[in-house]
Design brief:
Strands 1, 2, 3, 4, 5 and 6 form a six-stranded mixed sheet that branches. By secondary structure, the protein is α/β, with parallel strands linked by helices. The protein has seven helices and six strands. The radius of gyration is 21 Å and the shape is globular.
């Protein structure tokens, strides 16, 4: 192999390596999580906060997705007033916040039955991905949020859907290392 060919291959490999690692914050997808509509008996308002906090943390966990600041979103929603839930208002909200995706939905609690019904909207094409999760007992809410997070990440990033958050988050070697054999 000639020296010129070796230099060309090394330069080409370096170019590929550098171009793959040159992602910037602007390459991230941005998600606006709208307030959850709650259809439940009084005293269950904590589900709204838990929903936004858990979804924000889990969707953002694997990188590549920036979750918009809830206070910023609420400011835009307050400015829009009660018309803030029309598709046009949501497009305006996305434009004002820079969000590529919007997550909206509701949770219904009837007796021991829970239903989480959400729509993930890709703003530029206004393509809607409806997702529904059902469970028994308030403990099922966490599992429902995990499934939603995994599915939403897959849609937003265009990845093959993962089964669990552990498939998304790398597990530290100390946890997986079983020691000497």
């Amino acid at each position: 192999m000639t020296l010129r060919l070796k230099i060309f291959i090394a330069a080409f490999a370096a170019l590929i390596f550098l171009s793959e690692g040159s992602g910037t914050a602007s390459d991230k997808q941005s998600l606006a999580i709208l307030p959850l509509q709650l259809n439940a008996p009084s005293g269950m308002d904590y589900l709204k906060g838990a929903y936004r906090d858990v979804i924000s943390a889990r969707i953002g966990a694997g990188g590549g997705i920036q979750v918009e600041d809830p206070a910023k979103l609420q400011g835009v929603i307050d400015k829009q007033g009660t018309s803030g839930w029309s598709d046009e208002a949501k497009k305006s909200l996305a434009k004002e916040t820079g969000a590529n995706f919007i997550l909206e939905g509701s949770i219904s609690v009837i007796g021991d039955d829970l239903s989480l019904d959400v729509r993930l909207v890709k703003v530029d094409a206004w393509s809607v991905h409806p997702m529904t999760y059902k469970g028994k007992g308030i403990g099922a809410f966490t599992d429902m949020l995990e499934k939603l997070s995994v599915e939403a990440r897959g849609i937003i990033l265009g990845d093959t859907p993962k089964k669990t958050m552990e498939d998304i988050r790398p597990v530290p070697a100390a946890v997986t290392d079983k020691g000497p054999k």
